Amino acid sequence: MGELRGTHVPVLLERCLELLAPALDRPDRTTVYVDATLGLAGHAAAVLAAHPRTVLVGLDRDTEALAHARVRLAPYADRVHLVHAVYDELTEVLARLGYAEVDAVLFDLGVSSLQLDAPDRGFAYARDAPLDMRMDQTTGITAEEVVNTYSHGDLARVLRVYGEERFASRIASAIVRERQRARLTSSARLAELVRQSIPAPARRTGGHPAKRTFQALRIEVNRELAALETALPAALDALSVGGRVVVLSYHSLEDRITKQVFASRARRTGPIDLPVELPGSGPTLRLLSRGAELPGEAEVAANPRAASARLRAAERIDPTDDRTPTTGRRADRERPGRTAAGESDGSEVTHDPPRSSADDRGSTRQGEGT
Ligand SMILES: C[S@@+](CC[C@H](N)C(=O)[O-])C[C@H]1O[C@@H](n2cnc3c(N)ncnc32)[C@H](O)[C@@H]1O
Q: In order of start, what are the domains of the chain with their CATH numbers?
């Protein structure tokens, strides 16, 4: 384990604790908290300190993060399971540990400061490093392999879809031209190629010109979106009734997946024209956040890496409790609630209104604060 470089300040920590507390405070039994993205255990340590009867299952695909987390969590060692795994393996991990259900799950997506600040891992466009970008350095392809072996079409697709990069094709052309001269191995050289490919007027807006390209390559290298699409439904399936999930996203693609998975379970599923709800056709999830909540200005000022965070939270409910005649409820289904972010996701928010929302801040910012 290398020396710990700086610290990772946990994002929206107080709000996460507040949202998870009702699920973890069960007077009659021990509760289980899954931290699907353990990182340096900032959130996990705070949860364990606040809930002395809670057991942690902490996952991370980064062995270095796990080693640091183990040290930090030493005071709680008798109620901690740390697992080297991708979070889409959550179901198997819980089965191995013998947990049929869990009470709370946190996904704090993206990269940690440990990874961003590493001189040798290539996540940050602001410093020169080999183009690696793997969160798990024991396996998988590197960003260097992506930029040197993908066809022009595949590179442009990755940059367009995962980076939402308008100049994807021009950047892909520049990469292909460069690698015909010499293998592209350095993050600084890649950042410079991207900068040169973007027309000067466009460079002046939207942050560092290489931000979107680096985000796209990181998502591709780590198969981030596919893992989330599998893991989030698995986490919801594992939740006990009354259990809660909180997701912190750092770009719109992650947030969109979260919003869609939550919305699909927060709706009724029965035929729309029956006079009564069929037992079991009610929603299995209750939304706890209206739209996406954002950190306040004070938090962003103290921790610029929080700037792009968006929080969504939900609680598992029992669909068989939902046997109310549709009168009155039908209106909810036909006129879906508008979220604070101006989104209509067809589901209802029933409590815990946000303090700061995407709408309040008028923000559609995305990408990592590298
Ligand atoms: C933003 S950090 C978490 C920080 C943590 N909440 C804290 O307070 O220290 C995200 C962590 O999730 C891990 N991670 C990202 N995607 C993952 C995945 N698909 N499976 C497992 N771990 C993942 C990263 O390696 C990183 O350590």
A: 13-113+225-361 (3.40.50.150), 120-223 (1.10.150.170)
